[in-house]
Amino acid sequence: MVTLLVKNATVLVTMDEHRRELPGGGLFARDGWIEQVGSTAELPGSADRVLDAAGLIVVPGLVNTHHHFYQTLTRAIAQNSPLFDWLTTLYPIWARLTPEDIRISTRVALLEMAMSGCTTSSDHLYLFPNRSRLEDEIEPARELGIRFHAAYGSMSLGRSRGGLPPDSVVESEEKILAESVRVIEAHHDPAPGAMIRVVLAPCSPFSVTPDIMRESARLARRYGVHLHTHLAETKDEEAFCLERFGKDPLAYAEDLDWVGSDVWFAHAVHPGEGGPGWMARHGCGVAHCPSSNMRLASGIAPIARYLEAGVRVGLGVDGSASNDGGNLLGEARQAMLLARVAGSPGLAGAEEMPQMPARTALEMATLGGASVLGRDDVGVLAPGKCADFAAFDLDRLEFSGALHDPVAALLLCSPVPAAHTYVHGSPVIAEGRPVAVELEDLLEQHNRASRRLIGG
Ligand SMILES: [Zn+2]
Predict the structure, then answer these.
(1) pLDDT tens digits, residue range 147-196?
(2) Is 135 exposed, middle or buried (0-12, 13-18, 19+ CB in 10 A)?
(3) Spacing, Cα 200 to ligand 1 middle (Å)
(4) How far is the CA of 435 from the centre of ligand 1 (A)?
(5) Exposure of 156 in the CB half-sphere (CA atoms within 13 A)
(6) How close is the Cα of 9 to the center of ligand 1, in Å?
(7) Ligand 1 center–CA 51 separation, angstroms
(8) 18 C-alpha vs ligand 1 centroid, how far in Å?
(9) How far apart are CA 376 and CA 442, in angstroms?
(10) 27: CA distance to ligand 1 center in Å?
(11) Are 421 and 115 in contact (CB under 8 A)?
């Protein structure tokens, strides 16, 4: 039994049902599970591990709902290209990835996320060149101690059959389905507090066949795992679906049985007029990736309309080749700002919407993301939930002048790195440094791998 006491936070944001923010707050946890949340005076006076959070704002650990870790190796490439050109530039580089590259990039991506306060991340890995396996992500995630939803992706529709990726990076449907069963049976943990869950995630309408989508849905339901894919990301994708399948991306997904509370879509930028109602009616979740959508000029997802319709919305940094960073706190800020652009009264085609409050952006980054991943044990600081949280130092240049509202400051001011990030009661980041990894060594390995990949 290991106990943890967090005390004296300048403010502790609970995200509980009353959205309480507790000045002078803290929490008490045992074996990674929160037992008490309240003012410091109400909590036990000691514990095996004590974090004095004086001068810090403590928030539930942020939850990332969409990423491609391996892309940390190929940042800042195809700098001015839209999605399809960007992908066709990068596919041949990614075809050179080795299992060790995937391991190194997983460490870098997860540490970058943890430094921004993220405690749970999904990742969508859809290329397995040179005998890579999903374990090349799962094992490093387990070692780092970050909660991980491994989305087993796939591509089965190569260029010779009318898809976008070169044939060299696609796999046979038999192999994809056999591997889906193998990784679920080997790694999926449905229990509350799970560190690893597996998700089935064929890549996108233009890189997989309808058969693999249908079969993946059938398998996912047999095993009770969630489903994830890219959908309605760009106008090019919509045109592809209309031409090849005779329907728009949402109708195509519905046709394939890809609807329900166990399904979440990355992007959903172009859902059509009835899209928000459709998402709500079917209970699907959305991973909103504002930086990537801006970087690739994909468009602006109608987030205010999703929220208004009751759709579950989380945030994703998306892969680091289209962001080109993995800062989830920064992503929450981008989401808030982009929603304001989308609702700007002066912008042609914009629908006038109330400005998205900072606290709504923080809610999407925590509770929203947890809900999209199908978790009710994280994203909130309350008794019975996991002790996953991030603490940010308020005594910094960036926050000076905003301390009358530290919660809003966290979103409105420049994003700062977390001082402490805890997962299940254990520190992953302490005093602003990774606990289990020599960062300098890791960056040297990562840059070496990146040079080799990009250089061919
Ligand atoms: Zn993506």
Answers:
(1) 999 999 999 999 999 999 999 999 999 999 999 999 999 999 999 999 99
(2) middle
(3) 14
(4) 29
(5) 20
(6) 36
(7) 36
(8) 33
(9) 33
(10) 35
(11) yes
pLDDT-derived band at 87, boundaries 50, 70, 90:
very high
Evaluate if pTM is beyond 0.90. yes
| CA 66 to ligand 1 centroid distance, Å | 6
180 C-alpha to center of ligand 1: Å?
Answer: 19
Whole-number Å distance, alpha carbon 204 to ligand 1 midpoint, is 9
**Kind of pairing, strands 389-393 and 56-60?**
antiparallel
Length of the chain in terms of residues written: 456
Sequence-separated (6 or more) residues with CB below 8 Å from residue 239: none
Question: Helices then strands (H, E): number in the chain?
Answer: 15, 17
Tell me the CA distances in angstroms from 391 to 11, 63, 330, 401, 420, one per residue in order.
10, 15, 15, 19, 5
Would you give the distance in Å from CA 74 to the centre of its chain? 19
What distance in Å separates the CA atoms of residue 405 and residue 342, rounded to the nearest whole number? 25
Question: What's the CA-to-centroid distance between 101 and ligand 1, angstroms?
Answer: 19
Residue reference for tokens 């928000």: 276
Going from the Cα of 380 to the center of ligand 1, the distance in angstroms, rounded, reads: 26
Neighbours of 160 (CB within 10 A): 9
Tokens for 14?
A: 């609970």
